[in-house]
Design a protein that fits this description.
Blueprint (H helix, E strand, L loop, with lengths): L1 H8 L1 H26 L4 H32 L1 H11 L1 H29 L15 H7 L4 H28 L4 H42 L5 H11 L5 H17 L3 H27 L7 H15 L1 H19 L5 H6 L8 H27 L7 H6 L1
Helix pairs in contact: 2-3, 2-7, 2-8, 2-13, 3-7, 3-9, 8-9, 8-11, 8-13, 9-10, 10-11, 12-13
Length: 384
Amino acid sequence: MLVLYALYYARSLVIPVATAIVLYLTLRPIVRHAKRIGIPSPVGAIGIIAGILLTLGLGTYLVLEPAKETISAAPQHLTIAKQKLSFITDRLKDVDQATEELAETEDVASDEVASEKPVPVEIKQPTWTSGWSYLSGTGNVVSFLTICIALLYFLLATGDDLLRSVMRSLPNFSSRRKLVEVIENVQEGLGSYLAQVSAINAGLGVCVALVMWMLGMPSPIMWGVMAFAFNFIPIVGAIAGALIIFFVALLNFDPTYYAFVVTLAFMTLTSLEGQFITPAILGRSMSMSPVLVFLSIVVWGWMWGIMGVFLSVPILIAARMACEGYEDLRPLAMILGAEIPEQEKPKEASEEEASASSADSAKKHIQHETIPSSHTPITQSVSQ
């Protein structure tokens, strides 16, 4: 609990550091490959960071203007949405009215009891720290990008030197080899997962943009970008995207049922991707329990906000890959979804075969002892 509280309290510093480490482990193979063909690590790091910034800038440019228009007209949109959903809100008003009547009855009874007690006095201190929470929170995009990009550059450019220094501090060769294996395992797992998921999400974004354009939704490119970004958050991202699309479709189309049609089309695409395409591409090696994924999203989102939601699955994968490298932590890796190592499967199979053969031999021995031979009288066998 103390560690969780420290991560929560220092989230303004820990979030960009964690993001930079995840990106470093993911992009490190690209820098190493570029170094083999003669490109220095600092130059490769600059090229990778430039590509990331260009991608983020292009996505922001495509989404920013339509998002501004939607947000600026939000009060009018809320009024229209209430009118179109009046068949639901009217029933909810009846429920609210009933609960208010019950609450008024309880308040009258509580006031009669409280009138007999003295009134407590509370002195409030001035809220001089209210601005500090805004400055130190996760909403400070400028400080987040500055720390994350700077640390990512230094890790990509000189991270291998830091790893060599850490390895020299280890006492023996076996511990050094184990550390290298764990780092390579985490790097391979994160890299393959994020690369494959990014390709899947890009395909999903293109399909969503095309379907939204065919259905007449405004700004179909924005919905494709939203589907691409939200799909990095398993389970929760698809639900949030469906709610947003339903709300926008409800505002832009007169028949209320058409909003359900648009939302159903979006949910069909995300369901096909989540149930068939992603499992077929990732396979069992990257399969994780939906319960653990959801709990990871909830915990890291509660501590770190929206960036915690995006980092929850990579952190879960990195923890699983790191636990697979140590025998003492192998049970924890199995809980997180790791498969049984190949060298243990033949051993278990041989043990099962040996137990089966021993059971067969024991059975034959019992039958040989109990069944009388044809030359033995039946009475003699019974008496024996």
